[in-house]
Amino acid sequence: MLSGNQVKYINALKLKKNRETQRQFIAEGSKLVIELLNGPYHINEIYATPEWIGMNAAFVRPGKIIPQQVTEKELSRITALNTPSPVLAIVSIPSAEAEPLSFNNNLILALDDIRDPGNLGTIIRIADWYGISAVICSETTVDLYNPKVVQATMGSIARIPVHYTNLADFLSGLPASHKVYGSFLEGENIYTSVLSDKGVIIIGNESKGISQDVEKFVTDKIHIPSFATGKKSEEHAESLNASVAAAIICSEFRRRII
After folding, report:
1. 185 phi and psi, to 5 degrees?
2. Most buried of the four, 78, 87, 113, 164, by CB within 10 Å?
3. Same domain membership, residue 54 and residue 150
């Protein structure tokens, strides 16, 4: 049975200030928790129904971690989801990050002020799918360990390095020969552009796009064209969702090297 203090502590981790103080975050869902168990993160506690524990005994081996059995009603008191999952884990936030500049020779994503938790989580999942080496986030991008972000990654958080830094400083430190791609209305059609298998792809804020401080480092402006031909501008979508745009851009980059 969950104690009142446990319930209070777990619910407190839904707030960023408490996650930063305690250096822990919440992860919910069978697939997500199993991915974290098999990944580099350290899991401190697992709260799960007896049914989940019985079905996943191979993943929660004795000596690794012993789950605490709870009821669905107890899980409903601590969940951050609309419908509680049969398992919730408390996971340590890593104390140190690798130096982002070590990813210079690969294709990475840089996120400029992404605010929606679902977008960040989905973009991390997209990076995992397309073999992107890392995701670099601006300091104003939503917290990686927000429960909605963690949930939206569907386990990709266990495989994709994510770093927070001042994007302008990061980009200014890149070699002059390094390509930096950004999506703009005046950019070149991505389907006819020359694309590299190395460089930085910047995804801008959901409403404002790429900031001026970051735009000055863009070497190649690209654009995803609309195919809603024959329609007035007010009769079709004004823009694409940030995570949808990230998926299209990553797909086109990877398609070139198949």
Report:
1. -60, -35
2. 87
3. no
Check if the beta carbon of residue 114 is closer than 8 Å to that of residue 148. no
Structural domain count of the chain? 2
Q: What is the pLDDT of residues 188-227, one digit of tens each?
A: 999 999 999 889 999 999 999 999 999 999 999 999 998 8
- pTM of the model as a whole: 0.90
Same domain, 21 and 106: no
Which of the residue ranges 45-49, 58-62, 226-230 would you say has the lowest mean pLDDT?
58-62
Q: Are residues 136 and 206 in the same domain?
A: yes
Please choose, from the candidates 249, 223, 247, 242, the residue with its C-alpha nearest in 3D space to the C-alpha of residue 120: 242
- Shared domain check, 148 and 71: no
Give the relative orientation of helices 242-255 and 117-129 as an angle to the nearest 10 degrees. 10
